[in-house]
Protein 1
Amino acid sequence: TEIENNYYFDSRAVQDLQQMLADGRKEGLDFWICSAYRTIEKQTRLYEKKVSRLMTEEGFSESQAREKARTEVAYPGTSEHHLGLAVDIVAKDYQILDEKQARTEEADWLSENCWRYGFILRYPLDKTEETGIIFEPWHYRYVGKEAAKEIMEQGICLEEYLKGSM
């Protein structure tokens, strides 16, 4: 289902996403969706662009660049954005995808409230080793309200939650 900014989200969870954004906006926050569902082709372009940038700007060999790129941009076919259950949400007045995003009022509100709507901050600061992905204070994943509540209460990431349920 189309959400906003010409992005799409899984229709089974779109109402929870829209309600979360509406409730935050009622409190004066200005959220901006900068990514949601992505095709594998789009993910391939993002990944290859990151590899190229690492080689050109940072002097990595191709194999080093590909390895490093996987920690910052999901390898095509493995991105949660392919599922339509991941959304990148930033502050409209700070749209840069870096750690400073975590210091915006929008990020503060989302980190405190996202679980109420079935979302988790997917790649928390202290869980890089478990997830294999850098801290992404803009990347939220829909897991359902029950799972989100448990993950939040336990202070764990999705990988740890899934291990515990197996």
Note: The CA atoms of residues 67 and 140 lie 24 Å apart.
Protein 2
Amino acid sequence: MAVPAAMAYGADQSGLVYGYVFSAAGAGRAVDTAGAVAWLGEGGKPEREFIWLHFNSAHAATEHWLRRHLDLPEEFTDVLKEGSRSTRIEQVHRSLIAVVNDVVYDLMRQSSLQVATLWLSVEPRCLLSVRSQPLQSVDRLRAAVKAGETFPSPLALVVHLLRDQADVLVQIMRGTAEKVDRIEDSFLADRLPERANLGGIRRDLVRLQRLLAPEPAALFRLVSRPPDWVTLEDAQDLQQSTEEFAVVLR
């Protein structure tokens, strides 16, 4: 069946946007679909080598390829079907399931809040990320890989994404502070600002908090009792990144 151009945008015929195999030293090399299939079927892989596959969920062939080549937790396929958008990371059996959101918000131009969601399945030797539309955070992560930054594990890639998300929040809060300062200046100058300005900011910030706040109970369980394949360094990095994110969110 032919795939419409709009559905195939940014992906090959299988729905793969791009993939990387990471060596034991943490360096990534690009692989196409054929290379990914070969790596997944290969026995005797070097210790600590792992793969990252990034798919477009809007592509008609993606679901079939994932079912055929990956043994994904049922809970992850359910999350994909539901289209869950609330940020979270939780343990399911020996895997981790994460939902990360990208936010585009320009207070200065009074643009509407735009959110793009990334769904992740994290296993000892495989990171699968799936999106329906491009995300800036994933583009930044890919740029870091291409620039030679090393990642010792699939979870290290997820930590990078969480820290990027916190950076975006910091930028939004700085923009919010500038906007509110201008409103206060208007009050001091006896020029009443439009009430809708403050109301719109309040609504957007409430929505941001609802979408981006990780589910605390699941996160606490994960940080306190991570899967046995998660290294101490990765667990500490995850805890630090989530604590930084929580501070910014508050």
Note: The chain has nine helices and seven strands.
